[in-house]
Amino acid sequence: MPDRLAKGVYVDHAVLLAWLSPRSALPAGSSLQQELLNALSNFDSSAWRRIRVDALEVPILEEKKRSPTRHPVDLEDYLEDIEERLRAARKQVATQCVLLFSSPRFSAQNTVILLATAGPFYQVSVASRELGEKLRAANALDSFDEAQGQEEEREQFTLLDMAQLQADIVTGSLASREQAEAKQEAEERNAKKKRDAAACEERARRREERSRDLAGLAKKLMDLVAAAGDPCDPDTGRDPYQQAQLEDYDNLTREINPRLAPRWQAMPGESVDIAHLRKRSDTNFDLVWSGIIRVGSDVAHRYKAIIGDYVASLARVERARRERM
């Protein structure tokens, strides 16, 4: 249950990178890494007197939700449950991202990988510090700017209208101007009626063609759900439906409505890395999430490699820093 008196937030999973330096000479055969393990795992309090934590970084934040229902009504119900759980996880991990970049403890960090997980399904996004600050300020600024802009617009139009009215009265051209405007408006209305009539006929023709296409696609979709049948028995240890069935359903729904984005993540190109994913969010001024990824798939292996390469690069930077000390 949410606690309105809470002063912090616990994440479900996080990777913590500590930037260390020695306070004093380390024992023979020991290292900073070994001293940290002694302090954390072996509860050796004396280790903290020998090492200093210069900075902390959390390269990965993950919010986990329970697996989708094992007893869905049908294929559609199963897919909707997956999306609902991932949506809740995305919302929570985005809040954790804002809190991370708001903390002075992580002031040196500029990038974080976000994972929204629901059982064997997950989505990935990457946020920069600049984007985190924008997300933090977005809610308050959006409402203020919109109200301020509307008020300024009303004031501007009021002043312009009054100035024009005064000028018309002084020159005596108000009546003739109103007649000219009325004539022009009548001509524009007639032209618009003709355009609207032609556009209406064209839309009717397209609707008729589209309705025939949609009827066929809707039947295919119903046949797909019927063919998928009841979900697999949970006692077998298998998922209620197979990945191929979920992807076929997604493909048909996007044929029915081409404006829908793909639910499932395609294989990323070889050039895709964390910097590329972060740029996508920065360019969009909001978190851009991957499609849904299933653990164990080829796409999941590729994203695991992308994330692993980034974390390994951070470790290399830290080792190089220690060697220069």
Structural description of this entry:
- Residues 178-212 have a biased composition (Basic and acidic residues).
- Residues 176-212 are annotated as: Disordered.
- The chain is an alpha+beta fold.
- The chain has a domain at 13-136 and 263-324.
- It has seven helices and five strands.
- It has helices at 32-40, 75-102, 129-171, 174-228, 243-256, 274-284, 298-324; strands spanning 13-22, 51-65, 111-118, 121-128, 293-294.
- A five-stranded mixed β-sheet has the order 1-2-3-4-5, sandwiched between helices.
- Helix 2 (75-102) links the parallel strand 2 (51-65) and strand 3 (111-118).
- The longest helix has 55 residues, at 174-228.
- It is extended and about 90 Å long.
- Mean pLDDT is 82; it is low at 140-145.
Run of helices and strands? EHEHEEHHHHEH
Averaging pLDDT over every residue, what do you get? 82
The total of helices stands at: 7
* Rg from alpha-carbon coordinates: 30 Å
Structural class: alpha+beta
End-to-end Cα distance: 47 Å
Instruction: Give the strand content.
Output: 5-15%
Gross morphology is extended
Which regions contain 5 or more consecutive residues with pLDDT less than 50? 140-145
Oligomer: single chain
Strand order of the largest sheet: 1-2-3-4-5
Q: Provide the helix percentage.
A: 55-70%
Q: How is the main sheet built?
A: 5 strands, mixed
| Count of individual beta strands | 5
Region (Disordered): 176-212
Biased composition (Basic and acidic residues): 178-212
What secondary-structure arrangement, pairings included, does this model have?
Layout (H helix, E strand, L loop, with lengths): L12 E10 L9 H9 L10 E15 L9 H28 L8 E8 L2 E8 H43 L2 H55 L14 H14 L17 H11 L8 E2 L3 H27 L1
Parallel strand pairs: 2-3
Antiparallel strand pairs: 1-2, 3-4, 4-5
Helix pairs in contact: 2-3, 4-5
